[in-house]
Amino acid sequence: MHADMQRDGLGIDSPYVDLVVEVFSLLADPTRVRIVLALRERELSVNHLADIVEKSPTSVSQHLAKLRWGRIVKTRQEGTRVFYSLVDEHARTLVTQAVYQAQHAIEDVPAHHRSHPTS
Fold first, then answer.
1. For 9-64, what is each residue's pLDDT tens digit?
2. DSSP characters over the chain
3. Is the alpha carbon torsion for 48, 54, 57, 60 positive or negative?
4. Which of 81, 85, 105, 107 is the least crowded, having the fewest Cβ atoms under 10 Å away?
5. Number of Cβ atoms within 10 Å of the Cβ of 87
6. Is the model's pLDDT at 114 over the cut of 80?
7. How many whole angstroms separate alpha carbon 26 and alpha carbon 33?
């Protein structure tokens, strides 16, 4: 099992530890977390993201540049418009799990653990 963890980069001696800290650092900003949450299901333009996260397009562009540098988001150009999307499912999963962990900090039975009645 220890060999499997090392092979997957999950051992305590992982060469990825410093990069993991950089990823957490990139996501240690409320606006960037909101951007990732907004991009979970679809690609969006800067202006649409700015409306969703209630920040100026300039501010959102700066946050997107950092997320792009960290290879968390990617772009697609359509004419003069640029659309942003998540590079892969990992950022989506990471932020989702962080939200779930935050729910545990304030709720006895977090929303993600409650059973949903069938309709």
1. 889 999 999 999 999 999 999 999 999 999 999 999 999 999 999 999 999 999 99
2. -HHHHHHTT-STT-TTHHHHHHHHHHT-SHHHHHHHHHTSSS-EEHHHHHHHHTS-HHHHHHHHHHHHHTTSEEEEEETTEEEEEESSHHHHHHHHHHHHHHHHHH-SS-GGGSPPPP-
3. negative
4. 105
5. 14
6. no
7. 9
| Residue-wise pLDDT tens digits, 69-111 | 999 999 999 999 999 999 999 999 999 999 988 888 888 877 7
Residue 25 burial (CB count, 10 A) = 11
Whose tokens are 């962080």? That residue is: 98
- What is the DSSP track for 49-83? HHHHHTS-HHHHHHHHHHHHHTTSEEEEEETTEEE
Residue 74's DSSP bridge partners are: 85
Phi-psi region of 71 (alpha: psi -120 to 50; beta: other; left: phi over 0): left
- Output the six-digit token pair for 119: 């309709």
